[in-house]
Amino acid sequence: MGSIVLVVRLVLADVRRHKVQVAILLLAVTVATATMALGVSLRGASDTLYEQTRAATAGPDVVALSGDRGPAVTSALAALANDPDVVAHHGPYRIVYADLTTRDSTSSPVVVHGFAETPGAVNRPLVTSGQWVRPGGMVLERGFATALGVGVGDHVTIASRSYPVVGIAVTAATSIYPWAAQIGPGGGPSDYSGLAWMTRSDARTLASSHDLPVTLAMDLKLRDPAATEAFREGHRVSIIRINFHSWQFTAVQDMVILRDSQPILVVGSWLLSFLASTGVTALAVGRAAEQTRRAGLLKAVGAAPGLIATVLLTEYLALALVGDALGLVIARLTVPAIASPTASRIGDAAGLTGATVATATVLAVAVAVLSTLRPTLRAMRTATVTAQSATAYQPRHRPWLTALSALLPTPLLLGVRLTARRPGRVVLQACSTATIVIAIVALLIRFAQPERGYGLDGSAALPNLRGEHDRQLMLAVAILLIALALVNTITLTWTTAIEARPSMAIARTLGATPGQISAGLSTAQLLSSLPGAILGIPLGLGLFSIFALGNWTVPPFSWLLGAALATLLATAALTALPARLAARQPVAQALSAETA
Amino acid sequence: MNVSSAAVQACGLVKTHGQGQSRVHAVDEVDLEVPQGQMLAVMGPSGCGKSTLLHLLGGLERPTDGEVWVAGRRIDTLSERALARMRRRSVGFVFQAFHLVEELSAAENVELPALLAGRSRRQARRRASLLLDRVGLAARARHLPSQLSGGQRQRVAIARALVNDPLVVLADEPTGNLDTAATLEVLRIFEELRSAGQTFVIVTHDERVAATADRLVSMRDGMFVDDTRLAGSHPRGLGGLIGLEG
Ligand SMILES: Nc1ncnc2c1ncn2[C@@H]1O[C@H](COP(=O)(O)OP(=O)(O)OP(=O)(O)O)[C@@H](O)[C@H]1O
Ligand SMILES: [Mg+2]
């Protein structure tokens, strides 16, 4: 019991003394877990939004669609109403294929559903503003209206006739904008389209006056809403071809717009966690060395050598869990904005599920444990062997590196010899840089892809929402990645500078100038970054190719090279400050500190 | 006074640390002139300011007041960069704690100042092997400092201090961490260098080291309290002098 109190007290004291490091650790873990939690909860969030919309609009269990029309089709659809499994129905109703133009001449394909003025028992679109259809007045689906920038009271032109928009509504019978056309004319493929409702007679007039394509649909409510598959199987054999879209199918279709969001977030969270653990490792190494020096002191007050390890681990675990909790809160707050890029669904995006919380927590704990394990064990070992005088580190001699560096100008020479000093840190720095380059390469690829707009004939007047959403997400993840990597770079330069202080002070006595010292430190970081920057390009391309669906084009090589170079330059600029600060240390003080 | 004839010179040198109550005069109004070729020993109790004086002379610390001249050039007003350049050419340091770069081999440690001074790699290497040979460590050139004994490390440090043919070698208790045999070895090298005309300022607690000098200065509380000229090179030879023979 007493030892627990001691551990807690030491942890608290340590946290108080290292506020910046604690903040960095929290930031890293929070960002990683938030992204991971978002990534894994998208599917659930999308499903809940669909569920809520379906409940609010008496969504059909099955929509029967026929690409053809005529009395035979109408009666075949109507006959479904008599099926013993069907408890309620709506339709058959017309779906008219037309073009819609707004007052500011944005044009889009539209499917117009001909509905009764008083909605039936099944598929009752929920009017979110204005009112339901009336003769001469049309209602726009909310996702479509939002994309068009049209509201109640505006006029839109369909097939050269102007209609007032009397209301805005949502439905669960179709997929979200722009996939409202579940079937194309004649049963063929459909374009990106919005959805609008008119009265039955207005829809009929619209279709006949311009000889527009028309298909028929019928909404069905089943006795067992879950048995949509069985229902479909039971109606396969038919003279007239009818497509059955189950509510489950539509729910899955909603995810199409998030298709790439999930990999962006999940892969992003892996990279973020990776950066978090490299950053935390760098911090932990420095801390462990410091703790090792305190080992003698702790021993003097009767602490077991395991205490240092316990304190470090406890502290990092506790901080990781706090970061995890913060990350989950952030994820919960941002899910609604990310899970629903269109306005086609209503309701509140799901809270985080137990599985999401568990995944994020495992991640946070893994980051904390993996990154502290090695330094902690080392601290423990050193603490048991020697007490205060432990120089936890024995340099390894790399003659080829020294020989190579002797050919270089002095700052580079110092840099290379410093790099040789800490191979582990070189790897960490290279990893940080590689992650930055991966993020930038992925961004470049994403922005270089040609994209079809949602407007008429692929016009970009109506932007591709999925592309925009993906780019925004990717940008956000990339910004987080770069921010974490930059923090890592500064931490690594600083710890390198601190540890190189004795060697640097000696070099100063031998006639190295402060400029040479800081250039040497910067060079050391730059040299460590170099392999990362080079590797980052193929890794970025590789990651993108693994997770990208469909075709994609590689951006010009000069862009990729530019990204790597810019990253290196930024690294050099960033390391300059800590390096300069370290080089300004008075020599005499640094020398006596070493002997002390 | 003729400034340029002295290797190192200090006038009214003051160095204080801290402020107010805790203000310490580490060096207090010291005047000093070390002619070329002289071996000067500085002795005094712990904390009297010996190391501080040495740091001031080598430009590692800046004086609070007074002037420092090295090779006829005033250095206390120089920029850090100019000081570093001055050290490369004119000053070699030897420390009690050796201060070798731990990750470089003996030869690489010795090469380092030569490379910093802009010598070619081959020149630096040739110079380093020559000096290591002179301090009797040719066979240990590729060893890391951690693989050498204290005396060997100090000899590497001496070789390193000499690699750029400095005007003056500033040694801070060079034998402070060494046993008798190792001390003797270092003294033998110093004696050789002295007869070759190398200028030295050696801070020491060790009478045997002081006895090899041309001149002995005693320090107390940051001030010189005694300045004695010794007989110069001893005809009897070093071993006999310090009583270690036989
Ligand atoms: N950075 C510093 N800050 C404050 N006081 C200092 C500092 N460096 C040295 N001093 C003080 O200046 C005085 C002289 O120190 P110095 O190291 O020169 O003594 P020393 O003669 O070399 O002693 P020793 O024989 O123990 O090495 C001491 O009183 C010391 O406490
Ligand atoms: Mg001293």
TrEMBL record, chain A:
Membrane-crossing segments per the record: 20-42, 264-286, 306-331, 352-373, 426-448, 473-494, 526-550, 556-577
Record keywords, A-Z: Cell membrane, Membrane, Transmembrane, Transmembrane helix
GO cellular component: plasma membrane
A GO MF term: transmembrane transporter activity
Family matches, as InterPro entries: ABC3_permease_C, MacB_PCD, Macrolide_Exporter_MacB
Subcellular location as annotated: Cell membrane
Pfam families the UniProt entry points to: FtsX (PF02687), MacB_PCD (PF12704)
Recorded superkingdom: Bacteria
Domain (ABC3 transporter permease C-terminal): residue spans on this chain: 269-382, 476-586
Membrane topology label: Multi-pass membrane protein
Sequence ranges assigned to domain MacB-like periplasmic core in this UniProt record: 24-233
Family: Belongs to the ABC-4 integral membrane protein family.
Record-given protein name: ABC3 transporter permease protein domain-containing protein
From TrEMBL, chain B:
Presence of keyword Nucleotide-binding: yes
Alphabetical list of SUPFAM superfamilies matching this protein: P-loop containing nucleoside triphosphate hydrolases
GO MF assignments: ATP binding; ATP hydrolysis activity; transmembrane transporter activity
Superkingdom to which the source organism belongs: Bacteria
Cellular compartments per GO CC: membrane protein complex; plasma membrane
Domain ABC transporter: from-to ranges: 8-246
Keywords, in A-Z order: ATP-binding, Nucleotide-binding, Transport
PANTHER family with a match to the protein in the record: ABC TRANSPORTER RELATED, IMPORT ATP-BINDING PROTEIN
Protein name, as recorded: Macrolide ABC transporter ATP-binding protein
Protein's organism: Acrocarpospora macrocephala
Taxonomic classification: Bacteria, Bacillati, Actinomycetota, Actinomycetes, Streptosporangiales
